[in-house]
Every structure is written in C-alpha cells, then in structure tokens.
Amino acid sequence: EDVFMPALSAVPVFRKQLSVFMMLTVDLIHVAGSKTTDAANCSLFCIFQLKPDSVVEAISALPGVITFTVNRKLLVQVCESELPQQEEEFGLNSKLFDTLNRGTSLVEFSSPNIAKKFHAGHLRSTFIGNFIANLKHSLGNRVIRMNYLGDWGMQFGLLGAGFGKFGCQQKLKQNPLQHLFEVYVEVNKEAEHNEEMKLAAKDFFKQLEQHESEAVSLWQQFREITVHEYEHIYKRLGVHFDIYSGESQHQDQAQKVVQQLQTQGLLKTSEKGTGVVDLSPDGDMSSFCTVLRSDGTTLYITRDIAAAIDRKRKYHFDEMIYVTDKSQANHFDQLFQILLSMDHAWADRCRHVPFGLVQGMKTRTGEVVFLEDVLDEARTRMLNNMSQSKTTKEMDDPEDTAEKVGISALIVQDFKGPLQSDYKFDWDRILQTQGDTGVFLQYTHARLSRSGSFICDETWQDLLFSLLLEQTGITILQHLLRYDEVLYQSAQDLQPKHLVNFLLKLSHLIASAHRELPVKGSAPGVAQARLRLFSRAHSVLANGMRILGITPVDRM
Ligand code: ARG
C-alpha cells in the first residue's frame, strides 16, 4: 500500500499491474491461512497462482519473500515518456493530478506579533506555510500567500503609552524589531507596579479603537516599520507574501459579526456578562466560545471570524489553510464551527495545519528572540564548516552559499517527521554533511550540477539499454517515477515528510550511483547514459527542493 497507488498513477502500466499482483498475493496468503507460520508454503502457493506477463517478467519465491521482477525495457520506456524534460513541468503535467481540484488556495502563515518575540513557532509556520503554498502552486492552483500579523491588542496600548518614556525614534529606525521589543519589555515592567502606566496604556488602546488620529499614526509607524523589516528577512528565507493583513484590519467588522450572531440567534449572554456562542451538540452550553468581553470589546476569535468572512468575499478562495502550532487547534475548531453555524458552508474547506513545539533553539549568545538571530547563526556556523573545504575558496559568494545551505538544514530538520511532533533542536546534528540533512541534499545537488551534460543526439532509450545491466540505475529510475505520487501524498495530508524522505532517499541512491556508475573512463555510450540518468535525477531533486522552500546551490 505504501508503494503503489494504482488508480492514481501517472505510470499506470506498472503500478496497476504490480498492485494487482500484490493484492492477489495478499489474498492468497490469506486463503492459505495467514495464521500458519509456514510462510514458505504460502509463497509457493502464491507462485502457482500468479503468472508473469509483459509487465512483470518473473516471479520467484523464497521463504517469506516473493520477488516480482519488472520488465526493465518497459521501465525505461515509461521513464522516457512520463518524466518531464524540464524541471518546471513536474507536478503540473502529471496525469495523477487531474483528479485534484485546482482552485484558489489561500494560505495564511508566519503571522508574527508586532513588538513581541518571533519564536520558533513562527519560524515553523513560515517554513510549513511556504511549503504548502509552493506545493499548491506546483500542482496548478492559484495561491494567495497571506501574513496575518498580530498587530492589534493591548501591547499597542502599552507601546503607545510607554514609547514617549522608553522609546527613541532613531533607534526605532535603526533596529525596529529589537527596539520595539525592548520598549515593550520596559513598559510591561513599569506597568507592573505603576498604576498610572496601566491606565495610560488602557487609554491609549481606547484611542486606537476609536481611530483617534495621533494614536493611529504612531501605531501605523510601528506597523509599517515592522513589515518593512520582516520583508527583508523573509527575502533571506526566499519567502514572499502577497498580502500583509492582520488583526487590526478586522476590528470594526468584528463588531458586525457580533451583531450578525445576535440576529441569527446564536449569541448568548453568560453569567459573567460576556457574549458567547453555544457549541455543544445538545445546546446545553457544555462547550461554548466567548466572542465578546463584558466591556463590549471583541477577542482574537471574533476578529478571526470577521477575517475569514472578509477573505472569502475578497479573494473567493476555494480552500483556506491556516498554519499555527497545535496549541491553537481548538481555536480553529471553534472558528470553523461558528462559521458553519452562521451558514458559511465554505468553512468546510478551511483547514488548520497544526505543528509541534521546537525545544532548545538557541544561539551562541543565548535565547532566540528574533528570526534574524536564527538565520545569522545558521549562516555563521555553516560558513565555519565550509571554511575547511577547497571549493569554498573558489566561490564567488561563500556567505550567500552558507546562508542557503544553512536554511536548507533548518528546513529539512523541521520537515523530516510528522508536523505534529515536537522536536529538540541541535545545531551540530542538523549541519552534518552526511546523514539525512539539508546539507546532504545541497551537497548532492551541487555534485549533480557539476556532473556535466550529456549530448542529446542519441536517443535516451538507446542509451539506457546500457544502463539496464545495473541495478543501481534501475533503482534510481524506479524511484524517480514515484515523484508524482509523493507530491500527491503531500498534497493530501499537507505533510512535507513524504517529499523530504523521498529526496533524502534519492540522494542516498545517487551517492551509490556516483560510486558504482562512473562517467569518467566509461565507454562513450555508457557515459552518456549515466549522464542522462544523473541529469534526470538532478531536475527531480532541484524541483523537490524548491517546493520544500530550499534554494538549491550549484557549488559548495
Ligand atoms: N499571531 C498569532 C500568534 O502568534 C498567530 C495568528 C494565526 N492566525 C490566525 N488567523 N489566527 O499566535
């Protein structure tokens, strides 16, 4: 089941046939008595029932193992006709994807909070959301990438009230994220013992809510300067957003949502005087969601309801995907439930992609506060590792390479397991050249980039017949043919692990091929065939890396 997805295959001739054999085998084992420990007997029993044909050339059995040998010539032909020539054509053209709905996907990700820390969770959201957006795009969807900033709330009351005392315009321009965070920390400390400061903060936030121009313009300055700074950092990551939205954009609409809920008879008043929506199946308030504070102000969820409705109206998405850590799973459940109960049937096509915590992401100087710290650290460490190698000295821009490789290390580490899992962060482990790391993917890519190009005038098929003799080459071809399946699988559950593990496996296969299938010193035909094989592998690897959000390097 893991290997073959018959009905969806781009290479039906193999997968259908093989899976029919597989299923038959399983059935037969079942009939023969799966409880018997005599596996050899089962196998033999199967063998008599299965007849080789033009796809499966031979079937043989050892105790407990049945081997199906595929027709290698056919495999090569299929490779030639099915694998796209150009890197850009992957995914899009595959027949496998005719069954997918290609519409507009709105992907909301990263979404940091202004003046607060950019934590590892935001970094994960950035990587994962970017991957999902890339994947959807490569499968032919229109994709809208949205960043929903935490740009509203009491932190702006505090910042606004305290900026006069602790802030400095010059520092704000020089190092905005850092400075806003410092001011925020200072004001918070002050407000702990200073009632006046607390009141001033409340007052400032009220002014904001009432759109008073002075307060709004200071808020706007904080926001603009932050977005500008983030854009610069996202660029380093190779990530872009079509829209910078945020909680602030929906606070008026949030009040309308409350009215709407009231009109629809969905709003109840709790004993504490807050506005709530009953979410219990039996209508007994055993579970509910607060959408309005007793002082009449709205909450995070109220703004999310408003934001979702607004996005549907503006962008007509066919699906919307939210990427945040798993602690917000309940929030999104409630959000979708409320939208549905308001008769927004499209909420069915909204999806939350939750992920686990990262522990111990630290830099040499201590705790990670800003995204830039992580990127700088990755680059410095990578540069340090690379400085031992000869090729580094020949590079035009080793810093740039170190940056790209460092980021790929972060991404692969993050994507290897199920997204829901927590993981421990370890710089040394993720930066290893050997083993399942992003550095290894980059290394393989760089090596393939330098393997030289083949001459096109001989046909691929003729060339490949000389490859047929080698199992290594066949294994790589078989692996490459699974690429579309892997994209499909990732598109189904939005988990990058399928693609990452596919590319890591490919890289391991290529490492063996580099040892076992030398180009230099081989007869011209054989050399050409091998180059062609490497070139195919190169484009699949590059394409897959890009979808993951990695920029492949040609030298390292
Ligand atoms: N800013 C939020 C946080 O840092 C994440 C926003 C997630 N998106 C949403 N539509 N609620 O936790």
Automatic annotation (TrEMBL):
Its EC number is 6.1.1.19. It catalyses: tRNA(Arg) + L-arginine + ATP = L-arginyl-tRNA(Arg) + AMP + diphosphate. It is an enzyme of class 6 (ligase). InterPro entries: aa-tRNA-synth_I_CS, Arg-tRNA-ligase, ArgRS_core, DALR_anticod-bd, Rossmann-like_a/b/a_fold, tRNAsynth_Ia_anticodon-bd. One of its GO terms (biological process) is mitochondrial translation. It comes from the Eukaryota. The keyword Acetylation does not apply. Residues 441-556 form the DALR anticodon binding domain. Pfam families: DALR_1 (PF05746), tRNA-synt_1d (PF00750). Signal peptide: none annotated. Keywords: Aminoacyl-tRNA synthetase, ATP-binding, Ligase, Nucleotide-binding, Protein biosynthesis. GO terms for molecular function: arginine-tRNA ligase activity; ATP binding. GO terms for cellular component: mitochondrion. Belongs to the class-I aminoacyl-tRNA synthetase family. Catalyzes the attachment of arginine to tRNA(Arg) in a two-step reaction: arginine is first activated by ATP to form Arg-AMP and then transferred to the acceptor end of tRNA(Arg). This is Probable arginine--tRNA ligase, mitochondrial. It comes from Echeneis naucrates (Live sharksucker). The lineage of its organism: Eukaryota, Metazoa, Chordata, Craniata, Vertebrata.
